[in-house]
């Protein structure tokens, strides 16, 4: 499977953005996608994750009131709706996944460092006035 992230841009504090992660290729062996971000000088962190089997969603505590993850089955796209954006949300955002046998679970994605094999190219989100 290949992932393509898009939707980043420059937004003022308090604004909103919707990121998209389009999956292409064989996706039969993948059943979840996570969103990550990496700010300058900081480690990459998982911010949200969705499991395809039941639509269960997971969020890092610091973004749970701001971000909403969803999946469009028809287009095989996972969206990350972000609202009330703050300057500290500025980062490059990535989507990622791995084969089912290697998947660490969405709880691990949003709580700690994980290694995933398949990453989309990042999309820059800048929150600034």
Report on the structure:
It is a single chain. This protein starts with a strand and ends with a strand. It is globular. It is 5% helix and 46% strand. The mean pLDDT is 94. With 129 residues, the protein is mainly β. The strands form two sheets. Strands 2, 4, 5, 6, 9, 10 and 11 form a seven-stranded mixed beta sheet that branches. It has a four-stranded antiparallel beta sheet with strand order 1-3-8-7, with no helix packed on it.
Secondary structure elements and pairings:
Blueprint: E1 2-6, E2 9-11, E3 17-24, E4 32-38, E5 45-51, E6 57-59, E7 67-72, E8 77-82, E9 91-97, H1 106-111, E10 118-119, E11 123-127
Parallel strand pairs: 2-11
Antiparallel strand pairs: 1-3, 3-8, 4-5, 4-9, 5-6, 7-8, 9-10, 9-11
Shape: globular
> What is the overall number of helices?
1
Uncertain regions spanning at least 5 consecutive residues: none
* Topology as a string of helices (H) and strands (E): EEEEEEEEEHEE
Tell me the quaternary state: single chain
Determine the N-to-C terminus distance: 37 Å
- How much strand? over 45%
Radius of gyration: 14 Å
Helical residues, percent: under 10%
Instruction: Count the beta strands.
Output: 11
Overall structural class, as computed from helix and strand content, comes to mainly beta
Largest sheet: 7 strands, mixed
Mean pLDDT: 94
